[in-house]
Every structure is written in C-alpha cells, then in structure tokens.
Amino acid sequence: MRLQKNTLLALCSVLEFAAEPARALSTAEIARKYRASPHHLAKVLGRLRRAGLLSAARGSGGGYRFSANAKRVTLLDVIALFERIGAPAKARTLALEGAIAQVLAEIDATARATFGSVTLETMLKLARRPPAARGRAA
Amino acid sequence: MIQLKKIRRATRRDLAQVVEIDARITGMRKPAYWAGILRRYRLFLVLTDQAAVQGYIVGEVRDWEFGSPPCGWVFGIGVRPDARLAGAGTRLLEAICAEFRRRGVDKVRTLLARDNALVLAFFRSQGLMAAPFIALERDL
Questions:
Q1: Of B10, B90, B18, B29, which Cα lies nearest the Cα of B54?
Q2: Model ipTM?
Q3: Distance from CA of B34 to the nearest CA of A (A)
Q4: pTM, entire model
C-alpha cells in the first residue's frame, strides 16, 4: 500500500500538530524536519486548515496549531482530503476485468476500514511505543 | 458522570441488563443467545456501578483455532451508550486480558465487522493491530 507524497506529508504534519496541540509550529519547521519544500508544504497545510484540522496561530511566530479532536479524527479523514482510496467502479464488459475489479475492491475496502479506525491519538500512542512493540497486539 | 465500581463475573441476574445493553447497541434482543453465553463461557465479565450493569465483555482462551497457538479471544464487548467515555471499555478489556494472562497466554485477538468503526477504533486505541489472518465467507 502506497500513499501519495502529499498525503504522507499531510499525515506527518497533522500528527506533529496533534502531538503538541498548544504549540504553534511554522511551515519552515515542518518542512525542515520532513525535507519538504516549504512552498509545497504550505499548500498541504492550507488544505488541512480549510478542513478545520489546523488554525492559523496569531503572534510574531505565526504558523499553525492543531484545532480538531485527536480522538475523533482518523487517518482516513486526512487521507480523503488528498486522495481517494479506491477509484469508483467503472462498467466492466469483460468477465476477467470484472473479477480483477472485485478483488481490488476487496483490498480497497480493507484499506478504508483500517484507515478509518485509526485515530490521530492512536497513531501518537503507536509512535510512542518502542519499535519492537509496534507490531504486537496489546 | 457514572461512577464505575467493579468488574466481576456475570451471573444469571445480570442477563436482563446485558440483553438490554446489547439491544440498545445492535437493535436486536437476544435473551436465549445471552443465556447460552453465560452457560458456555467462563470469561463473561460485567462492569457495574452502584445500581446497574454498565458494560460487559465475553471471551475465552482457544487452543489452535485456525492453526493459531493458544490465545485469548474477545467475542463481544458492550458499554451502555450513556456510560461511554468514562473508561469502561478499557477497564473491561484490561480485566479480561489479565484473565487471559493468568491462563498462560500472551496474545489477545478479536474479530469485527469492517464497518463497525466505533468498536474498531476502540480496539485500535488499545493497541490491537491487524492479525495475520483473513476472514473469508461466501453465500450458501
């Protein structure tokens, strides 16, 4: 499973903000950390702000703050702002095409269920666990 | 805020309340099913406040099911909608996991409908990740 660069950058950024909701972070700080172009990142953060996940921070430092509920926002909520998991089904005229589309739809549905069940808070908990424990169930 | 008191094994006297909680969540009353659960499963726990059952959890240790080494399975969990966000689900899961550990297993597993986002998110928040199994079915 691969996500587009923009989407990954959005996920990392929103998690950075959610980890310290009281702190304003600048575009430059995040761009440095994730080796992204500030211009490119500004567009990503702008979209997150328009979706209500970030708000512009006032004051000399500027930047953004997290403005949503980390227990309620899921990875799918963020991903859906940038890309679609699973293209809309097209009419299939050949049986084999239809069969392949059915398997791909199954994979997409699982991916959506996974992304839709992991909240930002759960992601932050996961990131705090030691690397060896991340693959283990509780 | 509801004061959650203690977790104990479910008894026949709790069944009506468990049926009611399940019915509020699923929209179906299943008294015979829950009576069977009480007979069959030793790990059927309830969380109570002073007056009422606020939540339940059911599970057991299964050996070599689906080729898996012995592990604890959670078959069902439910919390009254008005008692949520007070840690009831977490306490119930911790209690059953402690029982699983006492029975010598070091893994807990559950199976959920893909569209059950609320309960999926709960288990995710408790650290459960996708298991290396795929559930399959077909129409008969």
A1: B18
A2: 0.77
A3: 27
A4: 0.85
